[in-house]
């Protein structure tokens, strides 16, 4: 698909012709055909899956399980290794729920100061219960994760590595393949948060060799309310069930429960059927794009944003060398929330605050957080020009620059 035609695939721009949407790291806009596929399911059947023996139930089940196959193909996994959840948060919590099987008292979990709260908080919570230690990879002077710094803290006590693929605040691509190889030599399990990388990097779980991986549908132009947990089948089978209810049991009696095999073991109750169908359509859209062209497009716009913002007196950019379309900055003496109000006056949608990465804002020395502009495939030069102009007005209004 030609990049110039991409905006036509998102009705958002028809309904909001004067809006410059630069908040895709929080949630991406929804691909029209993904919405249409969900609506089609609701209007033409809307029936439940796996339970009914009638034709409509069979067809709905078929479409749902085909969505699982689409996701599996997209990241080079097996369908049985794909679990549908309500989002990346639930997917990451599902794994942490079995922390006692992965790490013991006086052992260690390695993570980073870059992490999203949904990635690190479940392990901090479990550390209080189980007594293991959470250790952080030291960031370098650019706040990047390096293999060298990972080696400094990797040891015989390391049992789990919890890490992001791309930081949602800094936009850096982390060296996951190398880190995973080193972690596995120590016998540690690697859990990858791919929420930010899923739209920017062609992910191959077999090549990365991570043990678990999570992402959300709404980050990849699909619906809210659905996420994906990938896990190696032997490890998935060992995990505790996260919820217990209908469909995920093979047999239940008064004194015994036999669970289904993965992935259905972790999909209790009525699953997000329409959302899975919509996610599959969004992924097909992603597969129709040229990753190199979309990446180059985003990087070009990011470079323009960094160049323009850098010229504004009083603006500090925290990640000028980011790998993708995330630019985090502040205006000296101006709270990010105050600055964002000016951006809104210019119809520029950006995010302000901690971005659910509380630990990183402490490291950056920005207690109020940052202003974050996040660029996607449907953005253009006009969006970046509006961002720069709004930043100039905010700096002038609040900072007197």
Descriptive report:
This protein is α/β, with parallel strands linked by helices. The protein folds into two domains: 3-24 and 290-399, Aspartate Aminotransferase, domain 1, CATH 3.90.1150; 45-287, Type I PLP-dependent aspartate aminotransferase-like (Major domain) (Aspartate Aminotransferase, domain 2), CATH 3.40.640.10. Helix content is 41%, strand content 16%. The chain contains 15 helices and 15 strands. It has helices at residues 12-15, 32-44, 55-75, 88-96, 99-102, 117-130, 147-153, 176-185, 205-208, 233-238, 273-287, 291-310, 336-345, 358-364, 381-399, and strands at residues 20-21, 82-85, 108-112, 133-137, 158-164, 189-193, 212-216, 227-231, 249-252, 257-259, 315-317, 326-331, 348-349, 351-353, 370-374. The strands form four sheets. The chain has a seven-stranded mixed β-sheet with strand order 2-8-7-6-5-3-4, with helices on both faces. A four-stranded antiparallel β-sheet has the order 11-12-15-14, covered by helices on one side. The longest helix has 21 residues, at 55-75.
